Amino acid sequence: MQQPYLEPHQARTRVPNSFEDLLGDSIERAFAVGIHDLPGLVGYLNQAGPTCPGGEPWTEDAYKTLMARLGE
């Protein structure tokens, strides 16, 4: 029996906007250099960008809130 799989884009309801594309690219670069914890990721985003929506520095709470909203 063939195992079910997730087509990478089947769960999304729209095409990502440019901010979401930049954020995803930056998160992938952070993972590629070995950053796998939230404090490290937030620090990386503050250094490399993109900036947090609203122009404020990234915080753990801001990151969690945004990921929850994007995951809806």
Strand content: under 5%
Provide the domain count. Answer: 1
Low-confidence blocks of residues: none
Secondary structure category? mainly alpha
Instruction: Provide a count of the helices.
Output: 3
Specify the overall morphology: globular
Mean pLDDT: 90
The biggest beta sheet reads: none
State the total count of DSSP E strands.
Answer: 0
Helix content: 40-55%
Following the backbone from N to C, one meets helices and strands in this order, namely HHH
Radius of gyration: 14 Å
In whole angstroms, how far apart are the ends?
31 Å
What does this structure look like?
This protein has 72 residues and is mostly helical. The protein has one domain (18-71). The chain is built from 3 helices and no strands. It has helices at residues 18-32, 38-48, 60-70. The radius of gyration is 14 Å and the shape is globular. The termini are far apart. The mean pLDDT is 90.
How would the blueprint of this fold be written?
Elements: H1 18-32, H2 38-48, H3 60-70
Helix pairs in contact: 1-2
Explain briefly what this protein structure is.
The chain is mainly alpha-helical.
Relevant terms:
72 residues, 51% helix, 0% strand, Recombinase-like domain-containing protein, HTH_62
